[in-house]
Design brief:
The chain is an all-alpha fold and about 500 residues long. It is built from 18 helices and two strands. Helix 1 runs antiparallel to helix 2, helix 2 packs antiparallel against helix 9 and helix 3 packs antiparallel against helix 5. It is globular.
Length: about 500
């Protein structure tokens, strides 16, 4: 996370044990990536078996994203101050414990609370991954290492839904949906034991201070916004909900005032407000947030549509998503290596339009084929959507950070990660409005399918509109992202957001 690293052991880049350390931190990153996607496919099973309400289902996903977002920057700073290995081990140990609590949850309330804890522990674990790599590997080996990380990211995106479907359908040891969490236990325990032996400790000699007040204000503001959104429909949209959402804006305004004072006082605010003077970064933050909203809405309602609306099994739904994941991976590789160097910003804008076209095609097919739609009929819109998403996700980070001053690249990278997760949490909260808001409270069995299909189409309309907004916001990005050759640290930090997306 910082340009200066202080290894605390003699296990340098020539130590062959560094490859064991790499395998351990890569496994942890993979575990986090899979855990984000694996839960969606199991949500209908969780709802049926635990009796969770629709708002509790939203909290199961949004709670993780919110806790993860709120703790990311602080997690990175804790590693800089107290040692990346130490905080990584605390994170992976806590993540494993939280996974056990999720799997053993006796009611929906316990599951929601455990998911908040799991997200908070991921926020300690994930920021250390590339910092450990940077401190462990010499410069000439890092290109190879980052290539391996890219493969892990792609594998996590493809395997999460499939693994969730296989575990849920397989009903391992009669655990049903619980196995998607309990599978983390042997992996986490192994990572904890091996990490304590093979990972080299490192610190940053001039680490920024913690900003716990900033974290508290961010978390409070988001909770005041999300809680009424998620619970409002069930409670009949009470007045206090609107008051809370308006109050969230006051809290976030107070955050800006406090961060300015914090920056003047000790130079270590949670949010480096001076970054927003860079036009491309400010616009990019808006793009990243809104894009997170679109993805948060789509992936949850898509799962509910296939399994609860169409009555498909988890495995059938998981396999249906494979063309999408493959299209994202292929398009992402082409975007970075071939298209962006030639066409610059136009590639990202084309991605937004292509993804919107895929969403509209999906909306049309859902209406045309009705409840008899087959997975192969969904393949075309999913591939189009995947190509569009791939054109955006891979080059977006560099486009946003390309005009940021080098001395602020670490802060900008951490903030970019954070707003992406916050956008995702907000999107999951909006599902109450765009999806559940169109479904009646007391549906007869024969009404469930048509109601969920209508709600899915309504949600797709919103997602297409959001992608149109993203297309317009992208005009503020630089036409051609600058090709930085300012050192290994900048390259490391600019790849970092990919790991937590």
């Amino acid at each position: 996370m910082t340009s200066t690293e202080t290894p605390l052991s003699t296990a340098g880049g020539t130590d062959r044990r560094r490859w064991f350390a790499l395998a351990i931190v890569m496994t942890a990153a993979f575990m986090d990536l899979v855990d984000v996607t694996i839960v969606n496919i199991a949500i209908p099973s969780i709802q049926r078996e635990s009796g969770a309400s629709f708002s509790q289902i939203q909290w199961i996903t949004a709670g993780y994203a919110l806790a993860f977002a709120a703790g990311l920057i602080t997690g990175g700073r804790l590693g800089d101050i107290h040692g990346r290995k130490r905080i990584f081990l605390v994170g992976i140990g806590g993540f494993t414990l939280a996974s056990a609590l999720c799997g053993l949850a006796v009611n929906p309330e316990m599951l929601v609370a455990s998911r908040f804890l799991q997200g908070a522990m991921a926020a300690l674990m994930v920021p250390q991954v590339l910092s450990i790599v940077h401190a462990t590997f010499p410069a000439h080996e890092r290109g190879k290492v980052f290539g391996l990380f890219g493969a892990v990211v792609g594998l996590g995106a493809v395997s999460g839904p499939l693994l969730g479907a296989l575990l849920t359908e397989g009903n391992l040891f009669g655990w049903e949906w619980r196995s998607i969490f309990l599978i983390n236990l042997p992996v986490g325990v192994a990572g904890l034991i091996l990490g304590s032996r093979f990972i080299t400790e490192s610190k940053a000699p001039r680490a920024l201070k913690l900003d716990l007040v900033g974290v508290a204000l961010v978390t409070l503001g988001l909770l005041m916004l999300l809680y009424p959104l998620i619970r409002g429909r069930e409670l009949g949209w009470p007045v206090w909900g609107y008051v809370s959402m308006a109050g969230a804006l006051v809290v976030l305004a107070a955050l800006v005032v406090y961060e300015r004072r914090k920056s003047a006082r000790d130079g270590s605010p949670l949010v480096e407000l001076s970054l927003f003077r860079v036009k491309s970064f400010a616009a990019g933050i808006a793009v990243q947030t809104v894009f997170g909203v679109a993805l948060g809405v789509f992936f949850l309602v898509w799962t509910l549509y296939m399994q609860l609306g169409l009555g498909w099994s988890a495995l059938k739904a998981g396999l249906t998503g494979v063309p999408f994941s493959i299209a994202v991976s292929v398009a992402a590789g082409m975007s970075v290596q071939q298209l962006v160097p030639r066409f610059g910003r136009k590639v990202l804008q084309a991605g937004a339009l292509v993804m919107a076209a895929g969403v509209l095609l999906y909306l049309w097919e859902s209406g045309h084929y009705g409840l008899g739609i087959a997975p192969w009929q969904m393949a075309l819109p999913l591939v189009v959507m995947g190509v569009g998403m791939g054109l955006i996700v891979a080059p977006l980070t560099d486009a946003i950070l390309s005009e940021v001053p080098r001395e602020h690249s670490g802060s900008a990278s951490g903030l970019l990660n954070t707003v992406q997760q916050m956008g995702n949490a907000l999107g999951l909260g909006l599902v109450s409005v765009v999806f559940f808001g169109t479904i009646g409270d007391r549906l007869r069995p024969e009404q469930v399918g048509p109601a969920f299909a209508d709600a899915f189409r309504n949600s797709l309309g919103w997602v297409a509109g959001v992608l149109g907004v993203i297309f317009l916001l992208m005009f503020a990005l630089p036409k051609r992202p600058a090709q930085h050759v300012e050192g290994e640290q900048a390259a490391t930090e600019r790849k970092e957001p990919v790991l937590v997306s």
